[in-house]
């Protein structure tokens, strides 16, 4: 699914990728590299980003999701990746794993448009993890996300 939008006089094309419109290997590499570089200090390893994309486009039961790409003149300037959890109620049905806008295109409404499109496409609840000092928190709060829990993790080695 493609659609366009003018954001602050900037022509941006949005594309939704999912299990029926799987990106090519070259597109996967581009999306992974984009997210890795644009998430900066909040980024995961490229391997983790790649795994999230593979999960989103996996056609097996219990996995899936989608990605939204924002492009300006054919150049990737924004992206979100959602993984489904296959759970309902007690844990949100979807996790917004990644969302980023190219540093040269921030504060132009692109992140808000990507996030609102993400919210509309997600079937069921949508959760995310955000660092306390991440400036994107304001965007999440502005678009209706609220705090439910403080996440704690234990890593078994």
Automatic annotation (TrEMBL):
PROSITE patterns per the UniProt record, alphabetical: GNAT
Domain of life, per lineage: Bacteria
Leader sequence residues: none
Domain N-acetyltransferase: 15-157
SUPFAM superfamilies named among the record's database cross-references: Acyl-CoA N-acyltransferases (Nat)
Keyword annotations of the record: Acyltransferase, Transferase
Protein name: N-acetyltransferase domain-containing protein
Protein source organism: Wandonia haliotis
């Amino acid at each position: 699914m493609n659609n366009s939008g003018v954001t602050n006089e900037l022509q941006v094309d949005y594309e939704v990728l999912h299990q029926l419109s799987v990106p090519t290997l070259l597109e996967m590499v581009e999306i992974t590299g984009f997210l890795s570089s644009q998430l900066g200090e909040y980024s995961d390893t490229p391997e983790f980003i790649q795994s999230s994309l593979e999960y989103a486009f996996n056609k097996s039961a219990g996995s899936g999701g989608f990605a939204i790409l924002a492009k300006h003149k054919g150049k990737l300037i924004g992206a979100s990746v959602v993984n489904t959890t296959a759970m309902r109620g007690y844990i949100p049905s979807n996790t917004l794993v990644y969302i980023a806008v190219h540093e040269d295109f921030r504060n132009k409404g692109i992140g808000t448009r990507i996030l609102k499109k993400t919210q509309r496409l997600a079937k069921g609840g949508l959760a995310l993890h955000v660092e306390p000092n991440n400036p994107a928190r304001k965007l999440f709060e502005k678009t209706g996300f609220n705090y439910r829990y403080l996440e704690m993790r234990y890593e078994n080695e």
